[in-house]
Amino acid sequence: MKKLIIITLFAFGNIFGQESNFKEYLSENKATIDLENDNQWQLLKSDAEQNQFIILGESHGAQNAQLIDFNLLKYLNKTVGTTKYIAELDFAQSTAINEFLEKGNEEKLKKVFGYWVKIHAQWGNQDFYNKILKIRTLNLSLPKEKRIVFIGIDGVQDFNNYLIFLNSFIGKNKSPLFDELRVVLNAEYSDSNIEKITLFAQKYYDEIQQHKSKFQKVLKTKFPVFEYLIQNLSYSNSKSGVNRPEQLFRNYKQLYSILNLENQKLYGMWGYFHAHLVPVYYIGEDFASKLSSSDHVSSKKIISVVCLPIDSKFNVWNSKTENWTKEPFSYDTKSLLKIDGIEDLKELSNENSTTLFKLNGNNSPFPKTGRLFNGTAPQGKLAGNFKDREYGFQYVVLMRNSDWLTPLSKVF
After folding, report:
1. Are the beta carbons of 31 and 40 closer than 8 angstroms?
2. In what helix (H) or strand (E) does residue 227 lie, and over which residues does it extend?
3. In angstroms, rounded to a whole number, what is the distance separating the alpha carbons of residues 105 and 101?
4. Model confidence pLDDT, tens digit, residues 181-221
5. DSSP three-state, residue 20
6. Which end of the chain, N or C, is less surrounded by CB atoms within 10 Å?
7. Rounded CA gap, 262 and 53, in Å?
8. Under 8 Å CB-to-CB from 375, ≥6 apart: which residues?
9. Does pTM surpass 0.85?
């Protein structure tokens, strides 16, 4: 009995010691971020200098994530010269945003956001819209070569807009190579025809591969992007066999090559799971985990930063009332998601604050532990597979007491 008590006390002491190690480490590797001021991200400066792609992950709905995104983007632009924003948008949407950033035509921007408002997507919000306005203001203060440019690598979101963009991309070219395509593009659009349109894209992409030299001769330097646009459209067919994480991964690699991003610093804000560097058991791989485990040239040059909300709010569409509702948003409760070890972050931060924690510093106790990555949701336990990577992400931003994203008007 005495031996059992000693073993139990030893085990408890060992666990307590490990808990203490995590908290002590975090206390020495944190920084409070003032979102109203610049130069707040020095804690990750070295990683930003030594790596290529910084991906910010957040669960959509909290206002402060948009503020964090702009503040970090501005810092990276100033310190390491980041100009390429890898966006959770399709290529047509990012092109429209770039046209607004360059020329100030707000109708282009409103068209992108109007689609999100129409389908009740969280991204149809005033805070995201304001962020784009601030990026234009920032760009106007910068030399042309240092201005922010969006690169949308997502699958097709707004099909109607995508087809209109594709039509304008090929322009008035009268080559018979585009005859079949023009019939599809000029037909009256209906969501009910998406499967038919994407099936056509699959067949048309095969035709492009069979007659590539002819298409290249006609389109010249526009051919690589044209080929990409058709292939991306084809992925949306239900029988393509390409799920969204795989599509994002393929699109990233293709545009990385087409746009010659090898020597560019990249940044972008994505959904929470998209930014994980390791797969989650029973969920599988997502964009960043696929990229980090691949042989792509940028695969070992990724820094993941994820935002965790505490005592915050987020917007949820209520289909019964047809309005947005403000709901509690806190990753310290099993009713939504309880992150293992998040109490440490709460104890090391203040209310109404934004705090950056570095997990990959010297003598870090975090490698392969899953702490601050694993958690418990209503559906069950979420756990990362750390077989091939030490970190699920290298940084955590604790958002405390963030308001929700302000929904745009229904008649936007």
Report:
1. yes
2. helix 223-235
3. 8
4. 999 999 999 999 999 999 999 999 999 999 999 999 999 99
5. helix
6. N
7. 11
8. 331, 337, 338, 339, 340, 381, 382
9. yes
Please determine, for residue 6, whether its predicted confidence score (pLDDT) is greater than 90: no
Structure tokens given for 294: 């691949």
Tokens of 388: 């091939």
Contact present, 286 and 274 (Cβ < 8 Å): yes
* Rounded to 5°, angle at Cα 72 from 268 and 313: 85
| Domains of the chain, start order | 23-83+265-411 (3.40.1660.10)
For residue 353, the tally of other CB atoms under 10 A from its CB is 15
Q: Side chain identity at 170, as an amino acid letter?
A: I
Q: Are 365 and 406 in contact (CB under 8 A)?
A: no
Half-sphere exposure of 39 (CA within 13 A, CB side): 0
Enumerate the β-bridge partners of residue 151.
86
Distance between CA 297 and CA 253 in Å, rounded? 10
pLDDT in tens, 116-133: 999 999 999 999 999 999
Measured CA to CA in angstroms, residue 49 lies from 29, 34, 349 at distances of: 18, 22, 27
Q: Which of 364, 342, 365 is nearest to 355 (CA)?
A: 342
| Burial class of residue 99, CB neighbours in 10 A (0-12, 13-18, 19+) | middle
Q: Are 228 and 91 in contact (CB under 8 A)?
A: yes
Predicted confidence at residue 9, as pLDDT, reads 42
Q: The tokens 């070219």 sit on which residue?
A: 173
